[in-house]
Amino acid sequence: MEPFRALFGCDPDVAASAPGRVNLIGEHTDYSGGLVLPTAIPQRTAVELRRRPDDQVRVATSGVPGPSATYRLGGETPGGGWLDYVQGCTHELAAAAGPLSGFDARITSTVPIGSGLSSSAALEIALLRALRTAHGLPLDDVQLALVGHRAEHDFVGARVGVMDQMAASLCDERTALFLDTLSLDHARIPLPAAAELVVIDSGVPHAHAAGSYNVRRRECDGAAARLGVARLRDVSNADFASLPPPLDRRVRHVITENARVHAAVEALRAGDLRRLGELFLASHASMRDDFAVSIPEVDTLVALAAADPDVYGARLTGGGFGGAIVALARSGTGAAVGARVGREYAARTGRTGRVLVPPPASDR
Q: Can you spell out the DSSP letters for 114-152?
C-alpha cells in the first residue's frame, strides 16, 4: 500500500493501533450480560490520520485496493461494505463527544478478516484512538470501547456484544481480560509461562453482520423474554426446562459457559493447565451441540489439536460458522503443534489451515 503522503499529499498528524483478540473462553455470552476471557494477539490494525479543515473524510485501506473512499461527516449512511465501520465510528463518536472535523486516514492491518479474531473491533478502536488523540477528546479506554460497540451494533447492524471492543481497547498479550460484560468490571489474569496459545484459521470465513449470528442473538433475546428476565445471565439451570428446542439448548450453553469462565479463571490462577484444557474442550462441545455455531471443518481442527500430545485442549474461538480455533499447548511447542495439525487438517479436509498464532516468521 502506498504511504500516507503519496495517498493524500501530506504527512499524518497522528498514528494509533489496536490488536486483534482471541477469546480463550466465554463465547456467545457477552450479549446476554455474561462473562468472557479474551487476550490480545500479535496482529494489529494501524491507523495514520490527519485532520482536515472541512467535513470531508477520505479513507484508504490495505484491505481494499484502489482509490480512497470518501463521505461527509453528518452524512454517514450504511452501504454494506468495510467503510460502514469507519462511518459508524464517526457517527457514534460525534454523538458521544461532539462535532468532529474531517480527516484523511490510512488503514493497514495484519488481523485476518473472517477468522473470528475481531478484525472489525481492531479497526474501530485503532480509528477511535487516532480520532481521540487528534481531537483531544476526554474519553477513557472503556468509553472508547462503548463507542466502538455502538458503531458495530447500531450502525453496521452486527448484533455483537461488547467483548470485542473491550478486548481491542484493554487487552495485552501477557494477560487474559476477565470481563463481566454487564457491569464492565474487569481484571487482568496473567497467562502461565508454562503454556502458549496456538490459533489456527479453518479457511472458512464468517461474517458477523449476516445471517446466523444474528439469529442466535434473536434466539437468546427470545428465550429471555419467555423466561421473564432482561438477559440470560439472570437464568438458573432450573429455569429453562419448559423452553422448546432449540431455545433450551441455547440457554444451557450460556449458563454453562459462564460457569466455565469462572472455572477457567481459577485454573489460570492455580496454573492448572490440564483443567484449563478440559474446559476448552467442554466449551467447544457446548458450542457445537447446544449453541450450534460450529461446522465440520472447525470440529476437525479441534479434534486434531486435542489429539496432539503437546496440547491440553482446544476450542472454536469467535462467533463461529467458520473462523479459527484456539489451542492451549505446552510452552515452546506452538509452532510445531500448528504445523502438525495443519498438515493433518489439509489431508483430512483438503483445506489449508493457516497458523496465525504463533505468527509465522514472515509475519513478524
A: TSSS-HHHHHHHHHHHHHHHHHT----HHHHHHHHHHII
Cell numbers standing for residue 296: 465440520
User: β-strands 103-109, 38-51: how paired?
Assistant: antiparallel
Question: Cell for 326?
Answer: 484456539
Selecting among 104, 164, 201, 308, the annotated active-site residue is 164
**Residue range 17-70, pLDDT digits in tens:** 999 999 999 999 999 999 999 999 999 999 999 999 999 999 999 877 767 899
Is residue 164 flagged as an active site residue? yes
| Angstrom distances, CA of residue 109 to CA of 58, 113, 251 | 17, 9, 36
Q: What is the rounded distance in angstroms from the CA atom of residue 284 to the CA atom of residue 267?
A: 17
Give SS3 for 11.
Answer: coil
SS3 content of the chain, % helix, strand, coil (to 5): 45, 25, 35
Residue whose C-alpha cell is 479497526: 123
Residue 207 has pLDDT above 70, yes or no: no
User: Which of 233-242, 294-303, 324-333, 341-350 comes out lowest in average pLDDT?
Assistant: 233-242
Q: Write down the pTM of the prediction.
A: 0.93
Pairing label, strands 324-330, 311-317: antiparallel
Q: What is the amino acid identity at position 227?
A: L
Domains of the chain (ranges plus CATH)? 12-188 (3.30.230.10), 192-359 (3.30.70.890)
Q: Which three cell numbers stand for residue 139?
A: 474519553
DSSP 213-282: HHHHHHHHHHHHHHHT-SSGGG--GGGGTTSPTTHHHHHHHHHHHHHHHHHHHHHHHHT-HHHHHHHHHH
Lowest model confidence (mean pLDDT) among 63-77, 101-115, 125-139:
63-77
pLDDT (tens digit per residue) in 143-173: 999 999 999 999 999 888 899 999 999 999 9
